[in-house]
Amino acid sequence: MVIPLKYGERKIDLSLDEKNILSVIRSREKPGLAQPMLEVKKALENPIDSGPLREILKGKKAKSLAVIVNDVTRPTPYNVMLPPLLEEAAAAGLQPPQVTFVVACGLHRAHTDEENRKIFGADVVQKYRFVSHDATKDLATIKKLSTGNELKINRIVAEADAIVATGLIQFHITAGFSGGRKSILPGVVQAELVRLNHAALTGTDVGFGRIEGNPMHAEMAEAARLVGVDFILNVVTNSKKEVVEVVAGDLEKAWMKGVKTCEQMFRVPIPGLADVVITSAGGFPKDINLYQAHKPIDASSQALKDGGTAVVLAECREGTGDAVFESWMKDAECLDDIFHRIEQRFVMGGHKAYGIAKILKRVEVILVSCLEKKDVEKMFFTYAKDLTEAMAMVRKKHGENFKALIIPEGGYVLPEL
User: Fold this and answer.
1) Quick check: is 172 catalytic?
2) What's the pLDDT at 411?
3) Structural fold of domain 36-265
4) Does residue 73 contact residue 116 with C-beta atoms inside 8 Å?
5) Which class is domain 2-25+270-416?
6) Where are the domains of the chain?
7) Do the bridges between strand 2-7 and strand 10-15 make them parallel or antiparallel, or are there none, so unpaired?
8) Annotated catalytic residue within 111, 133, 172, 198
9) CB-based contact 244:238 (threshold 8 Å)
10) How far is 393 from 401, CA to CA, in rounded Å?
11) Which alpha helices (DSSP H) does 188-322 contain, by range?
């Protein structure tokens, strides 16, 4: 059987005998909408538990609008989302100088102008103001959260008459799901709050698809409510990055509708734990760096027996993606060093090293990427120059009759017993 696996912006064919395949785990995804922009318009006109956006803006007599948008690490289809959204703003009387797009970078790097043009469209970028959020400056204090953590947000967002949050709903490795409230926390808040919020990941109630009892999600939701998000526009996409559902309106109820659709498509049962899992991170931008590739590594590990092997295809064209994460991995003499370090002080970037270390303590991960061999091995992964070499390693370890689960959409699917 030949199974194409995404790698960067191309595909690599996995050729495997039927005898070695326990199962190919694919999502139960829906086909893309025939006219996604029309569906965006319909969602804006008939929002969930909310009045139409234009009426909200008119009712508030808004003279300024902050539209929070995803950064480059989230493949959000803004080409179909923004034109109808901007039509709503115009219908409410807002002119382009009164609308500012704030890129929810969280602790990620700022966008380049070229990236903005590619993601949001050259015409939109030329006409409207775009600002990448900086978590260290130009912040306004809102109030304290129930956790005791102080909530500070991007000043442009804080001072806007109205706030619209846009996003993409998918499984998230710690917050349960992306989208909705994540536009605020971690999207446009101060760095320290992001660190404190993510510190909860060392507990047991965080993870893919977990909302109930998840302290990270609870604090994110509270922050978004306190900031006063007026309206959201989120989409759910399939593995081809096609829009399958558009949700708009109330911050929580519209988002939850999208969450349910995401679960129906991507929470997939497996016949049993495997000795080997072969997966792709999902191609660019989901495999833009190792930091982002943590998601399919984590998901595939959940389908493995103790001591099993995950073969992960992730191009990582931008390297590790985070200096702190890289230093924590490379400075450690053994995986236990990372556990001891996180116990002493939780640090963003270090949290990703902790998550990876937990996985590598239990299973082997063979990484097929463009990273240097010395760097891969220094971070406790097994290096393979290509898929052929990786599969040779699998056969040497598990024998010619190994059984593997194949997960072509590792960046999307959550395998569960």
Assistant:
1) yes
2) 77
3) Rossmann fold (3.40.50)
4) no
5) alpha beta
6) 2-25+270-416, 36-265
7) antiparallel
8) 172
9) yes
10) 13
11) 191-198, 215-227, 253-266, 290-301
